[in-house]
Amino acid sequence: MESVGSIILYFIVALSMIVFSAMAVTTRKILRAATYLLFTLFAGAVVYFMLDYEFLGAVQIAVYAGGIVVLFVFAILLTSRPGDNSERLTSKSRVLGAVAAIATLVITGYALISRVSVALAPKPEMQALDMQQLGSTLMGTGDGQYLLPFEAVSVLLLACIIGGVVVARKR
Fold it and tell me: How far, in Å, CA of 161 to CA of 155, rounded?
């Protein structure tokens, strides 16, 4: 049974994730959007820590909140004037966007509700991983190991940095 304090903390963190993610996509100042994204990623790390996934919480803070958001801010500062407001978007497809958003909400709600019985079913006892197994899984090249995706992401980030520098030099 969960304690009342942890349930209240979960709802506070969930509400902060919803608010900050909505603010990130609705603000017209791009640096504020990156800051709101940072707060959303920190709230995600809190959820990992509440679930006793300390390693994933630390990776969330180090990689996403630390690395990706700093990369976003670096790219923003290189390519635009951060104090300027973005232009208000005018679109004739607002109704189509609203329909797509409602459809996504319905599909996500159905997926969540249909999986509740699976999530509530009793699970067998899981074996704890030690750091040796975790490291060999993350940096291995066999089936179910993640060296290739790790390297693909690093090449993608390098391409983003190079693209930001090229765009900044053309200004």
Answer: 10
Cα–Cα distance between 153 and 126 in angstroms, integer?
29
To the question of pTM greater than 0.70 for the whole model, the response is no
Rounded distance between C-alpha atoms, residue 44 and residue 63, angstroms: 12
The whole-number pLDDT of residue 17 equals 94
User: What is the DSSP annotation of the chain?
Assistant: ---HHHHHHHHHHHHHHHHHHHHHHH-S-HHHHHHHHHHHHHHHHHHHHHTT-HHHHHHIIIIIIIIIHHHHHHHHHHHS-TTSPPPPP--S-HHHHHHHHHHHHHHHHHHHHHTHHHHHS--PPPPPPPHHHHHHHHS--STT--HHHHHHHHHHHHHHHHHHHHHHHH-
10-residue averages of pLDDT along the chain (171 residues)? 83 94 87 88 92 85 81 74 62 81 90 72 71 78 78 82 77 63
Match 């053309």 to its residue by tokens.
Answer: 170
